[in-house]
Amino acid sequence: MEKILKGYVFRPYPTEKLKINEMVQNKNLSKKIYDASWYELIRQLEYKSKCKNKKFYQIETYYPSSQICNRCGYQEKKIKDLSIREWECPSCTNNNERDIMLFIQVST
Ligand SMILES: [Zn+2]
Questions:
Q1: Ligand 1: distance of its center to the CA of 88 in Å?
Q2: How far apart, in whole angstroms, are the C-alpha atoms of residue 59 and residue 68?
């Protein structure tokens, strides 16, 4: 899936299907969401992926990536708060960091 060209590695860029209309109803996040222009970012990623003949895919909106242990697959349903950035798996004691977990799960 990877392609090395002139020293750069090109990989597909998975994204999450976002329900932006629902997300902007959160007053704490709405300004940041509008400022980020997420819709345009996703549109550009899809467009550029097609231009480079790369796979473009989106993860389902409510896929529980932050709850699933990267080592053993155990799902910790208590992890719902965005402020929890990492947790230890009660099944295998693996330390799961939210951003890294998502990257590993959508890249495999
Ligand atoms: Zn685990």
A1: 8
A2: 14
